[in-house]
Amino acid sequence: MSTMRQTEEKSKWDASSIQPLLSCLCEAVPSDALHPAYRGMRTHTLFLRTELCLTPRSPILTMRRMSEQIIIERLEFRGRCGVTPEERAKPQPLAVDLKLDCRIGSAGRSDDLAQTIDYAAVARRIVEIGTTQEAGLLETMADRFLSIIFDEFPVESATVWVRKLHPPITHITTSVGVSLTRTRLQHQLEQSDAAPAPFLVQQLHRLPKGRVLDVAAGRGRHALYLAAQGYQVDAVDRDSGALAQLAQSASHLSPITTRTVDLEQPAPFNPDFGHAQYDVIAVLFYLHRPLFPFLIEALKPGGVLLYETFTIDNHLRHGHPRRQAFCLAQNELLRLTSPLNIMHYDEGAHDGVQGSGTTYTAQLVACKPLPSATPA
Predict the structure, then answer these.
(1) Domains: count for the chain
(2) Are 43 and 75 in contact, with CB atoms under 8 Å apart?
(3) Which of 1, 46, 183, 293 is most open to solvent, judged by the fewest CB atoms within 10 Å of its CB?
(4) CA-CA distance, 298 to 292, in Å (whole number)?
(5) Has residue 16 been placed in a domain?
(6) Are residues 164 and 37 in the same domain?
(7) How far apart are the C-alpha atoms of 330 and 313, rounded to whole Å?
(8) How far apart are CA 46 and CA 26, in angstroms?
(9) Is there a catalytic annotation at residue 10?
(10) What does the alpha-carbon distance between residue 63 and residue 70 come to, in Å, rounded to a whole number?
(11) For the segment 152-194, what is each residue's pLDDT rounded down to a tens digit?
(12) Mind listing the pLDDT tens digit for each residue in 348-366?
């Protein structure tokens, strides 16, 4: 028998022998077997989900943690939700589905409730909020549920689906609702003053996936946002205290590395960004002109520089920054990045950049050219 044939047969044997485990892991728990706290609540099923992986080229069955979720389906209660006072005057039937990404594998081995999330406690809190706090919109109610989940339970990400079971709308025969999915970090950023710059969010679709350098990162509002999108982020700043806060905030995210360095040391100075290291470099509201050659050098071919900072018009109109040297002259950013291919450029007044007023900035997205093909 050939080695390949032996491998195939061994893999089949392993898959067959593990089937009882697969069935056990994927089995739905009937509602009458749930925690007593669910009595009186209409809760159809609760699932504990994990995934197994067979390696097709190996005779050995391997297991890897793909996802661990607690799923609560159709938690029903009566709550006050509606745009008009008339609709909110009387409680109406609502339903909530929850999908909670969390670490539950150790509880499966120990059979210890303390090592997982008590889904009965989650259900109690959702029902408590849903029955005691009225809302004009289902979106508001869903956001409240997410806040409770992230504030009170060790959940990495969550999906909540809230719906009216008998909406006062002609021709809708079942339900109408909203679904929100957020990671813990995304929720924290939305609830705080540490939201990323609007320009970064708007241009995210232009940024290739991979490794990012965040220059003058501070406490990391942009580094955290990019890490939450799946980027590997290197953050540099001269404020070691700010970087320490960033490292603490990022402890549950994909890797964020921090490096304390004064980027404005006198020449000759090399910030040690490396050569062709980064898929993306982000510089937001920071300007030190001697860095531009090093930024361009550090981009990979095809890598993207995203840059936004104040122009001289902002200094003249608002007195900020206080020093003109920290402001770009007209079209200066284009000259400083001339070796790059411009993908987007906008210079002028922008709303919502800082506070509610108008801010004058230059915004640029530019790509490092790919090497020219060598003639045969």
Answers:
(1) 2
(2) yes
(3) 1
(4) 10
(5) no
(6) yes
(7) 9
(8) 11
(9) no
(10) 19
(11) 998 888 999 999 999 888 888 889 999 999 887 777 666 655 6
(12) 999 877 666 789 999 999 9
